[in-house]
């Protein structure tokens, strides 16, 4: 039986409590003492013996109560910790100050091919076959950056957390460390889940015909396990389509990892993609690092803005696409993985091939399947549903009641040209929600002028004023250039009037005056 003898703190009281048991020749298998309790595990104690023992304890000055407990608190904590360790999917090991394993979970036993009891007492050097790792961790008192290690040929990211005598104090002595091993595959999967949530075709808002046709084609293309190239203007949702294709493929349970080829200089893009070995370049992590292609094994790597990839990296990617093999930077060893490449670009790759800026052989390798994402202006019916979707999200984020779009605002959104596509629409909405507390948004709340300012600046330089021009000629030149520039994007006098925030009849007169033909608006 296990009991809790509760007392008011007094010097020597715990000793007196235990002396009662000694006098009764009762064997004690565990004792835990804190400032107001002595918890005792007494196997011989039965319910019949308890009342007389309780009397003896209550006879000690300061003892307040004796209650039966199911388990001692320390043992309860150990049970919880053991269960926690067992259910953790990542291998975890606790080591002492000399780097010897003192505890390990079942996942650690599985990846080391040893029993938990066999792991205890082993050094990190014996486990990973790496003398520098052990020395480095001990020298740094278990404060070290994550690094890569291998167990039976499998790569893991090793993270270490120091265990201190006094965890809350900087002065506490380090008495060991906790080592966690992350399998790149699991790490990639979790990162993906964190960054992207679900990401199926339902996440692509839009019901206009061009987007319906895209979804229908994408659903078919998604399940064909071949490279896919997604083309379309910037901000049209190419990455969203790539995620949806991954989610609808047989690779859905493996990682989807993305690299923006335009965001990184060549050397960094290469190390992100292919990984590197220890010491392969200055600034590299000491233990080396697996690249996205390795981490995504079984899944998909999304190469955004592929048109910006350097010719050197294009050659390496082509080699990988040929046989699924690659080498990390600084390594002779070939690694084979099974990864689907989905790439995307807003550039005309055919033209780049003709100009020698993109490898033709790579173009054909990437472009086995192709999807084209329509520009937002090609599906004006989707503008308002998308705007309302972004309004809901922005209001929820800003913890505001949902706003509505007034008729003027709706008209302005539909008439806008959207060179930045859905991303621009999203930005316009977020900016409006942030800047106003109104419940009904009108046109002036939407900052649609940014694009206009750029266009007008362009027109200004294009119609550079001749020194001989008088006022009227200069104004007329400007008006003609402005209308000629905007008319193709707003192909009716009504749309153009909305865009320039003026009257329909004035625009119709000016178009007539400058002889700008109706056809030039299409
Ligand atoms: N149809 C859509 N439904 C909902 N959100 C969308 C849609 N299309 C795009 N978005 C959102 O617009 C933003 C831009 O989309 P995304 O990054 O996929 O575009 P992209 O074509 O890959 O752009 P870039 O070429 O600049 O990389 C994202 O926040 C995305 O969630």
From TrEMBL:
Domain PAS: 77-128
CDD domains registered for this protein in UniProt: AAA (cd00009)
TM region positions: none
Superkingdom, natural source: Bacteria
PROSITE patterns: ACT, PAS, SIGMA54_INTERACT_1, SIGMA54_INTERACT_2, SIGMA54_INTERACT_3, SIGMA54_INTERACT_4
Nucleotide-binding as UniProt keyword: yes
Compartment list: Cytoplasm
Sigma-54 factor interaction domain location: 204-434
Matches recorded under InterPro entries: AAA+_ATPase, AAA_lid_NorR, ACT_dom, Homeodomain-like_sf, HTH_TyrR, P-loop_NTPase, PAS, PAS-like_dom_sf
Domain ACT: 2-71
Alphabetical keyword list: Aromatic hydrocarbons catabolism, ATP-binding, Cytoplasm, DNA-binding, Nucleotide-binding, Repressor, Transcription, Transcription regulation
PANTHER family: HTH-TYPE TRANSCRIPTIONAL REGULATORY PROTEIN TYRR, TRANSCRIPTIONAL REGULATORY PROTEIN
Protein name per its UniProtKB record: HTH-type transcriptional regulatory protein TyrR
Organism: Noviherbaspirillum album
